[in-house]
Each structure stands twice: as structure tokens, then as C-alpha cells.
Amino acid sequence: MSAPPRAKGPRRRLDRGVTKERRGKEAPSERPGGEGEGTAPQERPGGEGEDTAVLCAGLTYRFGEHVAVNDVDLAIRHGETFGLLGPNGAGKTTTIRMLTTLLKPAAGRVTVFGVDAAARPMLVRRMIGYVPQLLSADGMLTGRENVELFARLFDVPRAQRAARVAQALAAMGLSEASNRLARTYSGGMIRRLELAQALINAPRLLVLDEPTVGLDPIARTDVWEYIAELRSMKGEGEVGGMTVLMTTHYMDEADTYCDRVALMHQGRIRAEGTPAELKEALGAEATLDDVFRHHTGDTLEVSSGGIRDVRRARRTARRLG
After folding, report:
1. Which pLDDT score is estimated for 40?
2. Closest CA to 41 of 114, 122, 109, 121
3. What are the chain's domains?
4. Is 105 within 8 Å of 91 (Cβ atoms)?
5. DSSP 249
6. What is the C-alpha to C-alpha distance for residues 296 and 262, in angstroms, rounded to an integer?
7. Which of 181, 200, 202, 133 is CA-nearest to residue 14?
8. Residue 289 belongs to what H/E stretch?
9. Sign of CA dihedral 160, 99, 45, 259
10. Structural contact between residues 314 and 181, judged by C-beta atoms closer than 8 angstroms
11. What per-residue confidence (pLDDT) applies to 298?
């Protein structure tokens, strides 16, 4: 069934600010999946094997005199769900911003599937999907138009766009609601729409920053069921088989859905392992909440600028309903 006619207002917003097609203008060496003709394959950084999706080596970032991320070493394996946990101000989001090429490290390096994020940011961006903590969907566009917008921003070839958009919406269970304005969606539907946006370029790495913030328990479970389904999908042309990096303050989510986790505090990695290993190290009755408290000083203190983080989280929760 064809989509019903749309008002001109949202369509104009869809076109605004979108760059023209850049097909054919990029260097062959910047295309995902290999090097250009006549160039040697990129040497993989030391310590990185073929099964490593993300490698941080001595990763450091400073805001003035404040060291937000301090000499972090971290390896995430291909195909796993990895949780980066810690209190507000621990350095989690700053680490993610370096990984997603939004910040350049002050020292050290981060590679994504063997590609240096600082040296070749455009190539890294083509391999990742990113769902930030704050809302990124436009309520004045339909669900389909939101995903179409991301398809154009990610320079998905015109001939593939319609199929890619339909595939991403179907993967998130939004096909029937795709022609409604996003402002009519529930909180859980909005989060699924943002996942569809992040999936439009068929990423090898999906980065989720507080993906269920402000959602009720049922909506939280629904979002994670869709993420689990994405990881289990196989076959040519299907999104899936991807690596997932997430942050969350819900320890039950980390315990249930993460293959491994790392506890971060004051810019450093304090502990790393499977949830079961970390709990066992504290005792038979220990929970992941106990592990969190043990490695972060038994507190959830808000660091500098924390009041803005609290206000921002509350605004997000209100918008999600």
C-alpha cells in the first residue's frame, strides 16, 4: 500500500540542511571494506587481533586541567555486547565521543575494526551506528521521514535507500506506524525509531549511550528484545551480527544483556570481566550493584557539571513520557 500524502511542511524540513550527493567524490581508500587500488593493506595496531572490534590504548582526554579519561586500555571483541559502566562524570561519554570521532584524543589511540578513529574519522563513521542519550528524532517528521533523513546524511546510495529504510523500520517493528508523526509515538517507540536511524548504514558497531533512559520497565524490555534480535540476524542484506557497546545505569540490564562489562571511575577502568566473574570475585551473594559500589567508592556522586547532567536527564525523561 502506498504511503498517504504528506503535508508540505514536514517535507521541507526533511530537505533542509541535507548535503548534495557525494557519490564518486571520495577517495577509494576511504571506502569501507578495504583500501584503494595500489595501496598496501592497513597495518593493524599492536595487540589487536582479527576478532577485535574496538581497541583503546592509553586513551586520554582533558578538559583544561581536568583529566576526564586517563590512560584507558580497553578491547571489545567482535560480535559481543560490551557494557561500559560507571557513575556520572566517570568518563564514559567522553570515551564514546572519542570512539565515534566526535572528540580527538589528547593521547593514546582508539581503533575501530583496525581503523584509527582520529586519523580516518570518515571511514570509522561509516562503520558505526550511534544512539545518543538525548533524543535525536524530529517530532515534526514521520517515522519514515526521520529514517530517510539519516539515510541521506549517511550517503546511502539512492538506489538502495527505499529498501534500507523499509528494512530498518521493519527490524524495529515500526512499519505500520512509519507514516505517523514521531511526536505521536510512545517513549519506547521513539527509542526504537532512533535505533532504526542508527541501523540505516548497516553498521558493524552499534553504540548505545543510555538507550533506555526514562522508559518504563515494559518499554525497556521491548527495546532490549529488539536489540537482541538484531544481534541474532544472519544472512546477506540483513542488519545483524554486529558488535554492541552500551552505557547504562541499570545494573540489571548490564547483568542480563552484556557479555562483558568494564567499571569506570574517575577516568580509569577499575575492573573488567563478565558479570558472573565480577560478582564471584566479591562473594557468592554479590550482585552487580555490589560490584559497582565496590569499585566506585560506594557512591553515585555527581562530578563537576553534574547538575546539568541531572537536568538534562530529567528533560529527556519528560520528553520520553
Report:
1. 33
2. 114
3. 79-108+122-320 (3.40.50.300)
4. no
5. S
6. 12
7. 181
8. helix 288-295
9. negative
10. no
11. 54
d(CA 116, CA 155): 21
Amino acid at 53: A
CA nearest 250: which of 279, 221, 230, 282? 221
Locate cell 576478532: which residue? 51
**Taking a C-beta distance cutoff of 8 angstroms, is the pair 146, 193 a contact?**
yes
Q: What is the pLDDT of residue 313?
A: 52
Residue with cell 595496531: 45
CB 96 within 8 A of CB 244: no
Cβ count near 235 (within 10 Å)? 7
pLDDT tens for each residue of 175-187:
999 999 999 998 8
Closest-CA residue to 264 (of 296, 308, 216): 296
DSSP for 109-162, please give it. Answer: EEEETTEETTT-HHHHHTTEEEE-SS--S-TTSBHHHHHHHHHHHTT--HHHHH
* DSSP 8-state symbol, 205: E
Burial zone of 284 (CB within 10 Å; 0-12 exposed, 13-18 middle, 19+ buried):
exposed
Q: What pLDDT is attached to residue 312?
A: 58
Cβ–Cβ < 8 Å for 130, 207: yes
Block residue for cell numbers 535525536: 136
Torsion 268-274-275-281 (CA) sign: negative
User: pTM of the full predicted structure?
Assistant: 0.73
All three cell numbers of 234: 544472519
What is the pLDDT confidence band of residue 47, given thresholds at 50, 70 and 90?
very low
CB 197 within 8 A of CB 177: no
Cell numbers representing residue 295 in the block: 569499585
Q: Which three cell numbers stand for residue 305?
A: 557539571
Helix axes 187-199, 306-320, angle to 10 degrees: 100
Q: What is the pLDDT of residue 30?
A: 45
Query: Each residue of 61-79: pLDDT tens digit?
Result: 999 999 999 999 999 999 8
3 state DSSP class of 88: coil
The candidate with the shortest Cα–Cα distance to 263, out of 306, 305, 294, is: 294
In three-state secondary structure terms, 100 is: coil
